Amino acid sequence: MAAYAASSSLKNTIKHIQQSYRISLASPSSEILQPAYEAMSRLQKVLVQILVTSRLRIKVYPIQVVRLLNEEESKKLLGEKVFGERGFPFSLEKLGEKIAKKCEGLPLMIVTVAQLLSEEDKTTEYWTEVADIQHSSVFVDAYNQISEVLFPSYDYLPQYLKMVFLYLGAFPPYSDIEIHNLFHRLCAEGFLEPIEIQTSEDFMDSLGDFMDGEQTLEDFMAQCSAKLAYWYHLILLESNPESWFSKKEFRVHSCWQHLCKKEASEIKFLHVLESCDDVLRDQRRLCAHSNTLFAFKEVCDSITSDCASTVRSLLCLGAYHQYPVLIHDMDFKLLRVLDALKVRFYNVPHELLKLVCLKYLALTCNKELPISISNLFHLQFLIVHPHMHIKKRGFLSYMPMEIWDMQELQHVEVLGTDLPTPNFDATLGNVSSVIGVSAKSCTREILKRIPNLKELGILLELKPYEDDDDGSNSLIDFDYISEELCNLHILSYFVLNPNMKYEFVVPLSMFPSSLTRLELKGLGFAWRDMNHIGSLVPNLKDLRLEHYAFRGPKWDIESGCFLNLETLVIEDTDLVCWSP
Question: Which one of 285, 449, 465, 477 counts the least CB within 10 Å of its CB?
Fold first, then answer.
């Protein structure tokens, strides 16, 4: 009976539509869109204008995406909503501009903030508080109101995208998010691991039509980001010109971040610490946008008593501190992710080396890694940056030999420190990326022991004295790199503080034909060498030449080079013109 009534209703609707000239369909989900498509297919011979509004991108018909407002438009809209057509008074104009900028171009946010401002005193003191304090009451109230409108868009997400999206709430507002770093964390969290009864190939197959061809999990992560941006409109790829151009970074609007943080905390998925009084019971992931919070004994005691047995991640994502921040009692036996790259340590803490379940470790420290780093035998991602790049004369820095015992490692990024040559038959078969090493880590003996390397980042620091050349900066004899690294996809070669009186000699055979991304900085090559390189890497899609990687006013690009290139970045150069 209900089916008959629905069919009858649809026929009546179609009959009514055929007598109309314009139709507006507001549809929040793909389930509701499908009946609309079926109805519209019956109207192909009827002269009718149809407008469909949806939270989702619609493939079937041409679409118009409503863009965010720019800063001038945002300021004008806020001023008119608070003060009418005359806009801001002179005394509040600059503050109004700062408040409008914090709305990040979202009209709904601007209108909501304007309504709340209209109900309060219009004094410079109050507006200064709203403009300068990140979590002012006006913005918190606005976020809470808007969350009710935004929540259905989150609720309609597939489960695998909900997990990724909620994790984005960990990042500070108004900041870009690097896709590769996000991917590494999600892998360490276990979100991208196949279940036990599946092989990795079965896991990729289970993702269905979303995967195109032969793709890696990192490709999948990039496509998740693209899907959230272009299909669901939940993240922003255009907020920063560099981010949009490189496709390496994106950001989440502060409205969405508020919803992510609130929902993630409620379901015990992730909690962003805001004060010493936060309730942390049974939270699985803790994040701080002010890294000093983890230094308060009250916070650490609360973590120990309320969630020490459940916490799996500590994320210090606030601003970097040049002075060390003490993190009390890291006695979390089941901790898997510790991201303390924005926290400076004088030494690698001994307590940290007892966290045997760690899979992701990132910190800043100038001291060498201790031998006991190998105690972290589950570690997959090792990231250590120096606080300062200090080069001692006649001193070479190496990772401990025990690094070769860490068979779970996938990503090694210990800047300014080299891999030692093993004196035994050891390999790192799971390592796919090595970043920040010198030419001493690129010997044939070492490279053949990392057979599945896909990304290599070479960092060259010029010695301050002419007689200091020990060969660690030379690649002239490295013509075997393409032979040993036939699966290499990404190669970067950076010269710190380049001296333009030097021209580095690099054998062309060190560029494998498998390369899809190449980054060069400070090498001072001649542009003719770029043509030779281009002929060797037919699959190159992303090329970045910075800090006088090449020199000369003219680049004559030879035909047949760079046929698949999608992204080209040239910065800090004396190039005047090029000709194809």
Answer: 465
